[in-house]
Design brief:
Blueprint: H1 3-37, H2 48-54, H3 56-78, H4 91-99, H5 109-148, H6 158-204, H7 221-248, H8 251-267
Helix pairs in contact: 1-3, 4-6, 5-6, 6-8
Length: 270
């Protein structure tokens, strides 16, 4: 990457950072101005008409931010950052390479113990990740059932409904995150331990019983790139379609008003 390309990437990065701050400042300023200007009238502050009139400037900066973000993404794809030569040690990759070189049989006690420990580490990872998946799926089902139950929503008790929603949703979300973090930590530890046992098995095993290497046909870089851009294009089409549908049926105004009311009446902003 040349010096000019590096400066171009830096310029787009700074532009995105500045526009991000501007969008936040202008949006908060317009919302605050609309809120405090309505205190004297006694009427509702965030009506659809008032929002349309006061949120023009934030959306101008937002559309500009989107344009710069798209341009920056193209620049970063065309001129990617150089990869660092100092690569961190990847135990999982090293273990995957050693698995194909470990002999199938061996008569020494060290080999038998090493093979037993290798299988034990694999079972630990399977059990831990299975438990994490169960927690995540159970949490997703519970939250989904809670959200679709109309008995949990009362028009005259929005604050209580929101607090109950936070308790029920956040608790399961936190439990799922903790389960995934614990599973990831256990996997990292077990991979390191299995790597040590794999090295012992590699040294003490019968070299005449090496496993038959699997022949796999690698996918070409062109095919991977085409599949990646196909998925990106499909996601973009779906996203734009839903955005257009939401704006067309008035859902965007309704969601915006509800979101602002929740922030100001429930959470306490403003």
């Amino acid at each position: 990457m040349t010096a000019s390309t590096s400066k171009l990437r830096l310029a787009f990065t700074l532009m995105l950072a500045i526009l991000t701050v501007l969008v936040a400042v202008v949006f908060i300023g317009e919302i605050a101005d609309l809120y405090y200007s309505s205190l004297g009238t006694g009427g509702p502050a965030y009506t659809p008409d008032a929002l349309r009139e006061n949120l023009i400037a934030p959306f101008v900066f937002l559309f500009l931010w989107v344009g710069v973000a798209i341009a920056a993404y193209v620049i970063f794809e065309v001129y990617p950052a150089p990869k660092s030569r100092a690569s961190s040690k990847d135990n999982s990759r090293t273990l995957a390479l050693l698995r194909g070189r470990i002999p199938e049989h061996g008569s020494s006690a060290e080999f038998i113990e090493a093979r037993s420990n290798i299988n034990g580490m694999r079972r630990v990872r399977v059990c831990v990740w299975s438990a994490a998946i169960v927690v995540c799926v159970a949490g997703a089902i519970y939250v989904f059932v809670y959200l679709i139950d109309p008995a949990h929503y009362h028009p005259n008790a929005l604050h209580d409904d929101a607090m109950n929603l936070v308790r029920h949703v956040i608790s399961w979300t936190a439990a799922s995150l903790v389960a995934c973090f614990v599973a990831a930590g256990v996997e990292a530890y077990s991979v390191r331990r299995e790597l040590d046992f794999a090295k012992i098995a590699l040294k003490t095993g019968d070299k005449s019983t090496l496993p038959v290497p699997r022949v796999s046909r690698p996918v070409s870089k062109k095919t991977r790139t085409a599949l990646l851009w196909t998925v990106r294009a499909a996601v973009a089409v779906v996203a734009v379609s839903f955005i257009i549908a939401g704006v067309g049926n008035g859902g965007a105004d309704s969601v915006l008003v509800k979101a602002i009311n929740i922030c100001t009446e429930c959470i306490g902003l403003g």
